[in-house]
Automatic annotation (TrEMBL):
Protein's organism: Kordiimonas lacus
Domain of life: Bacteria
Keyword Glycoprotein tagged: no
All copies of domain Isochorismatase-like, residue ranges: 61-210
Record CDD domains: cysteine_hydrolases
Lineage: Bacteria, Pseudomonadati, Pseudomonadota, Alphaproteobacteria, Kordiimonadales
Membrane-traversing stretches: none
The protein's name in its UniProt record: Nicotinamidase-related amidase
Length: 217
């Protein structure tokens, strides 16, 4: 059999080792009455957009992330969790970006807690960050290298911010990223659609939960 030319477009002979990355599924930015959504009028977003986002997280994203986590765990594949959480109670270690945006989840606070239905179990990896970019603000790249991970499936919030940043960086660093479209949410349907359109086939594959679960199984 003739060995394929690995320089040919679309070929990649590296072994496939998948992992699931769950981004910012915590009280700070997903739940009415907490953090960003403690006072809707302060966000500057339209009320209908806020309700769209909160409904999507509750009714679509969380159930699908539960399914994804179960699929990866059943195959003994890594499920990695990241959250916004400072190292200090007063948040003095936060990035200028998070200071400007007023994002602060102190250690051990309710805002830093993962939502219970998608929280880490056993000794799953948990990374805390104080910037949008998980790769720039944590040692995720180093850890993935140690684990031999090549394929990164990404779920969480917000699609147009932290999720997009993770996907772009993963692509630049040589991973094969897949964004799980129905396990992510942006603050409006327009932002969700624009983010997927921007990322698809350029920085990541775009798949739905059913497709990913089938791939993994």
């Amino acid at each position: 059999m003739t060995k394929p030319d690995i320089t040919e477009k679309g070929t990649d002979e590296r072994p496939t080792v998948p992992a699931l990355l769950c981004i910012d599924l915590q009280y700070l930015g997903t739940t009415e009455g907490y953090g960003i959504f403690e006072n809707h009028r302060k966000t500057g977003w339209k009320e209908e957009d806020i309700q769209y986002y909160l409904d999507r997280v509750l009714k679509l994203v969380l159930p699908n992330v539960v399914r994804l986590q179960s699929a990866f765990r059943n195959k003994q594949l890594e499920v990695i969790h990241c959250r916004i959480c400072s190292l200090t109670q007063d948040g003095r270690d936060r990035s200028p970006e998070h200071v400007r945006l007023g994002l602060h989840a102190p250690p051990h606070s309710k805002l830093a807690q993962f939502l219970p239905q998608v929280a880490p179990i056993d000794d799953e990896l948990v990374l805390s960050k104080t910037a949008s970019g998980i790769f720039t603000s944590t040692n995720l790249h180093y850890l993935l290298g140690n684990l031999g991970i090549t394929n990164l499936y990404v779920a969480g919030v917000y699609t147009n911010e932290c999720v997009s940043s993770a996907v772009r960086s993963a692509s630049d660093l040589g991973y094969r990223p897949t964004l799980v479209s129905d396990a992510t949410a942006a603050i409006s349907s327009a932002m969700q659609e624009a983010s997927l359109l921007t990322l698809e086939d350029r920085y990541a594959r775009i798949k739905e939960t059913d497709e990913v679960c089938e791939e993994i199984s």
